[in-house]
């Protein structure tokens, strides 16, 4: 790894490539060491859903990658491309033979056929093991899928290996089986500290000894692009392949929120918080990845978010509502904007449902209450993280579709009492380009040079004071329903 001085001298000569393997498509981005995007490419993916089943053909991942790569690199000199890193959905698995041919359709991250296996794992693996790993499996997690495969795919496992989505593609790029990174393998039961598969979990899974891939920490070089892969992708043969991280971590990398106390709040369909802490953070609603720099990256995902607007205001002109809504004044009612059933963060309550306290004064007032309700829940997230020993600093990087609404982003800054910063480029593929560069120059130096803040929203204390009563009222109502623990209520309403 070169030092910071070398990073400071690096300019636009070197090119770093990031790959994002999503559910609906593959995206590839090429960026320079100063964060200038030279090319983008994408290609769609098909999937199959039927009841709890959600599958995809892994061969599509490769063909889509080839298409997206060639588009992204069409105007990029091949000799300039130094390294490539890949992110993927967390918890997607495929069984492949040692020639990297899929033996079964891929089990996607939200395939729920292994729900019973997940419950069995919680019963049979001691709680101390999950605490050591910093995770507590949920029904859709990959470790449950491993148990399901152990029962239902013994023939395939006898002659194959289980790969995560990113592993399959990086291995295809190298033309040989490469190790898995502990970020993509975290929900498979990997130990992120020792980069091993815990004996206690292996014993319960009952998988053949060869069935799980070797593990490495993210951010290091694990192989090189083969000549055969270079011919079809446009990547140069010999370009280094860097061990990646999940798509959520890739989004965090793209924001540059990589120092202790830095956080990225993603307001998309749901509200996701990811940040950096000195120690591992773990409870029922938060789990931690181990970053390339040895720091912990805790995170949690709420079940509320901008997606509630689709169900609460179908067909509405949201831009017009934004323009007319008095978001800096308390609404006539207080909303807990949960579209479905169940909450995951900042508290866990399977029976949680959305509610409204009081009556809205009209449709516009109801809209205001929903946007304020999401901001209030975001403030509860910040309080919860602080109670776990993962404090949030004075500024937060914000991304997701919600930031397209400047009034809503300003409201969130007011309620949180923090400066909100919107990065210029927020795609997970860009985060992987940052990670690829960091393997040469270091994480902090690469992020400092490549990530740029596009807009800032400063908190208005007088607005925050006016809205504080609504926040406290929501916190009290959640506690009264038995969903918000008393300790979190005390932390949330302190001061």
From TrEMBL:
CDD domains the record matches: ASKHA_NBD_FGGY_SePSK_AtXK1-like (cd07783)
Domain Carbohydrate kinase FGGY N-terminal: 15-253
Boundaries of every Carbohydrate kinase FGGY C-terminal domain copy: 265-438
SUPFAM superfamilies according to UniProt: Actin-like ATPase domain (SSF53067)
Domain of life of the native organism: Bacteria
InterPro entries in the cross-refs: ATPase_NBD (IPR043129), Carb_kinase_FGGY (IPR000577), FGGY_C (IPR018485), FGGY_Carb_Kinase (IPR050406), FGGY_N (IPR018484)
Short name of any one Pfam family annotated for the protein: FGGY_N
Biological processes, Gene Ontology terms: carbohydrate metabolic process
Keywords: Kinase, Transferase
GO molecular function, one term: kinase activity
Signal peptide: none
Family affiliation: Belongs to the FGGY kinase family.
Protein name in the entry: Sugar (Pentulose or hexulose) kinase
UniProt organism field: Goodfellowiella coeruleoviolacea
Lineage of origin: Bacteria, Bacillati, Actinomycetota, Actinomycetes, Pseudonocardiales
């Amino acid at each position: 790894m070169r030092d910071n001085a070398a990073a400071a001298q690096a300019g636009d000569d070197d090119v770093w490539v990031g790959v994002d393997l999503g559910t609906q498509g593959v995206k590839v981005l090429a960026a320079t060491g100063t964060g200038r995007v030279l090319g983008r490419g994408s290609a769609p993916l098909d999937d199959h859903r039927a009841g709890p089943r959600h599958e995809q053909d892994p061969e599509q991942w490769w063909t889509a990658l080839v298409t997206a790569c060639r588009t992204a690199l069409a105007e990029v000199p091949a000799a300039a491309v130094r390294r490539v890193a890949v992110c993927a959905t967390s918890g997607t698995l495929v069984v492949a033979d040692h020639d990297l041919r899929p033996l079964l359709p891929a089990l996607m991250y939200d395939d729920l056929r292994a729900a019973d296996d997940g419950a069995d794992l919680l019963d049979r693996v001691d709680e101390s093991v999950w605490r050591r790993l910093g995770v507590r499996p949920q029904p859709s997690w990959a470790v449950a899928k491993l148990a399901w495969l152990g029962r239902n795919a013994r023939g395939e496992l006898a002659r194959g290996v289980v790969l995560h989505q990113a592993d399959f593609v990086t291995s295809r790029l190298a033309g040989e089986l490469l190790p898995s990174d502990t970020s993509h393998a975290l929900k498979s039961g990997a130990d992120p500290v020792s980069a091993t598969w815990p004996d206690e979990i292996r014993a319960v899974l009952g998988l053949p000894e060869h069935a799980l891939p070797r593990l490495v920490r993210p951010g290091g070089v694990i192989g090189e692009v083969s000549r055969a892969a270079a011919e079809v992708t446009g990547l140069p043969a010999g370009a280094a392949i860097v061990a990646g991280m999940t798509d959520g971590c890739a989004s965090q990398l793209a924001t540059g929120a990589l120092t202790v106390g830095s956080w990225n709040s993603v307001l998309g369909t749901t509200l996701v918080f990811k940040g950096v802490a000195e120690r591992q953070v773990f409870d029922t609603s938060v789990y931690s990845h181990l970053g390339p720099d040895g720091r912990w990256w805790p995170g949690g995902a709420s079940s509320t978010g901008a997606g509630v607007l689709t169900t609460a205001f179908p067909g509405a002109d949201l831009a017009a509502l934004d323009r007319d809504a008095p978001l800096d004044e308390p609404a006539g009612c207080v909303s807990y904007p949960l579209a479905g059933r169940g909450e995951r963060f900042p508290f866990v309550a399977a029976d949680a449902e959305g509610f409204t306290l009081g009556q809205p004064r009209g449709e516009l007032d109801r809209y205001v209450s929903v946007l304020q309700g999401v901001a209030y829940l975001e403030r509860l997230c910040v309080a919860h993280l602080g109670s776990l020993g993962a404090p949030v600093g004075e500024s937060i990087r914000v991304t997701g579709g919600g930031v397209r609404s400047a009034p809503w982003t300003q409201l969130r800054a007011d309620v949180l009492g923090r400066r909100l910063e919107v990065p210029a480029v927020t795609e997970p593929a860009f985060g992987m380009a940052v990670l690829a560069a960091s393997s040469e120059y270091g994480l902090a130096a690469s992020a400092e040079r490549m990530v740029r803040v596009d807009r800032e929203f400063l908190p208005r204390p007088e607005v925050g004071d006016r809205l504080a009563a609504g926040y406290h009222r929501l916190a009290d109502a959640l506690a009264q329903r038995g969903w918000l623990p008393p300790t979190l209520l005390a932390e949330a309403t302190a001061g």
